[in-house]
Amino acid sequence: MILVAGGAGYIGSHTCVELIKHGYEILVLDNFSNSSAKVFDRLKKITDQDIPYVDVDICDEAGLESVFSTYDIQAVIHFAGLKAVGESMLNPLVYFENNIAGTSTLLKVMKRHTVKHMIFSSSATVYGEINPSPYQESMQTGMPTNTYGYTKLVVEQMLQKLDQAEEGWSIALLRYFNPIGAHPSGLIGEHPKGIPNNLLPYVTQVAVGLREKLSIFGGDYDTADGTAVRDYLHVVDLAVAHVLALKNRLDHTGCDIWNVGTGNGYSVLDIKNTFEQVNQLQVPFEIVARREGDLASFYADSSKIQNELGWEVQYQLDDMLAHSWNWQKNNPNGYESA
Ligand code: NAD
Ligand code: UFG
């Protein structure tokens, strides 16, 4: 059985669908700090399965011990983390405790039960400001511009040191670029609590009338249209990358790194304009000052994951933006509108 820690969240729930599609038996572990157990009703509609889950925190060693003693766990896909950049700058200790100490506790219990396969949700933020795009896995990591990103770098280094020190670990560090979109069914998607930090949820909330207009952070970057460029990928393609990484890790030992991005860069204005065109609606906007810590442009070199894991992108930007809107318009209040 595969333990999906943080499996009730945005990327985790999409990964549950792909794992089931590929025949894996799964157990979700989540403390629901940024998700709702209502997601399981939606997952049942998509997969026709009742996915078992436990309400446990990765910082709770006794809780984890009970899970690993009760279930026959073979590998862990580890999504359980806090991810709000602004909050991480205000409350670093909360991020150290949840993301770093929580992962350490999870690893300790895994080791006790001889479970040594882990797929970890890292981020392109670990490349820092020093590296030019396209980012390649062989580059030296830099210093992330925020505390959230710093926790990702620390956990990557913890996992690398663990692998160097002890035999038998099998770890994948997946460095995500910018996941957007939702399941094509419109049944699961992203619904951030409060004001969205990320671009796509903000765009869809403006389009649905929850917010007045989009603020575009910076129009004077050294890019084609002056707005910042990112590598957006469909969350279902990202979910499939986890299945491929898991298959690979179940047959290998060691710690390996894969970028998960398409290699294409789109600007904020590209996203807004394409969203309007694909969905036939208007998104009022204004260009405001740059957001502190933002980089002008970054995107992936995705050749390693393509060559080594056979990952292929199934969805293009139009699909990502159509699926984001399909989810938002059918679920203006996320799972609460069910
Ligand atoms: P999410 O918040 O939707 O999902 C994370 C899940 O983990 C939530 O269900 C939350 O309740 C749970 N969780 C958090 N702390 C926990 C704890 N201590 N114990 C148990 N469960 C806990 O976020 P997401 O977008 O699905 O991201 C998943 C992972 O991918 C996170 O680690 C995130 O940092 C990482 N990541 C996300 C992005 C992105 O753009 N979404 C980019 C790079 C990396
Ligand atoms: N943006 C806006 N207006 C908004 C929101 C975002 O213009 O309301 C812009 C940002 O300035 C950026 C782009 O849209 O240029 C994408 O922003 P996101 O916040 O969606 O994504 P980021 O690339 O900034 O953030 C990602 C991950 C974080 C990670 C960070 C580190 O989502 O988890 O990279 O670089 F920490």
TrEMBL record:
GO BP field: galactose metabolic process
GO molecular function: UDP-glucose 4-epimerase activity
Pfam families cross-referenced by the UniProt entry: Epimerase
Cofactors required: NAD(+)
Pathway(s) it belongs to: Carbohydrate metabolism; galactose metabolism
CDD domains assigned to the protein according to its UniProt record, in alphabetical order: UDP_G4E_1_SDR_e
EC number(s) reported in the record: 5.1.3.2
Quaternary structure annotation from Swiss-Prot or TrEMBL: Homodimer.
Protein family membership: Belongs to the NAD(P)-dependent epimerase/dehydratase family.
Protein name, UniProt field: UDP-glucose 4-epimerase
UniProt source species: Acinetobacter marinus
